Amino acid sequence: MHWKIEVPPLAIDLDCSTALPSQELVDRRQPELNYWEGAVSYRGRSGGQAATGVGYLEMTGYGHPVRMD
Questions:
Q1: Domain boundaries in the chain?
Q2: Is 1 helix (H, G, I), strand (E, B) or coil?
Q3: pLDDT at residue 53, rounded to an integer
């Protein structure tokens, strides 16, 4: 999993990726209840300077599983 985060007014341009390959909870009986949570790391630029870090991301309310089995 990979996300691109851009906030031009703040000069933020980051690539965010999962720290572990499988962090999505999928209920095949109710796919609208997909829930993704887990550790992430990022790198890129913020305010014109190099930026790296780690974090925790939760996503809900998206329509289809994003798991890459």
A1: 2-60
A2: coil
A3: 96
What pLDDT was estimated at residue 65?
A: 62
Distance between CA atoms of residues 29 and 40, nearest Å? 28
Instruction: Look up the pTM and report it.
Output: 0.66
Q: Which amino acid is at 66?
A: V
- What six digits make up the tokens of 63? 């329509």
DSSP β-bridge partners for residue 63:
none
Residues 6+ apart with CB under 8 A from 6: 12, 13, 14
Which three-class secondary structure string do you get for 11-69? CEEEEEEECCCCCEECCCCCHHHCEEEEEEEEEEEECCEEEEEEEEEEEECCCCCCCCC
Q: Which residues contact 23 (CB under 8 A, 6 or more apart)?
A: 1, 36, 37, 38, 39
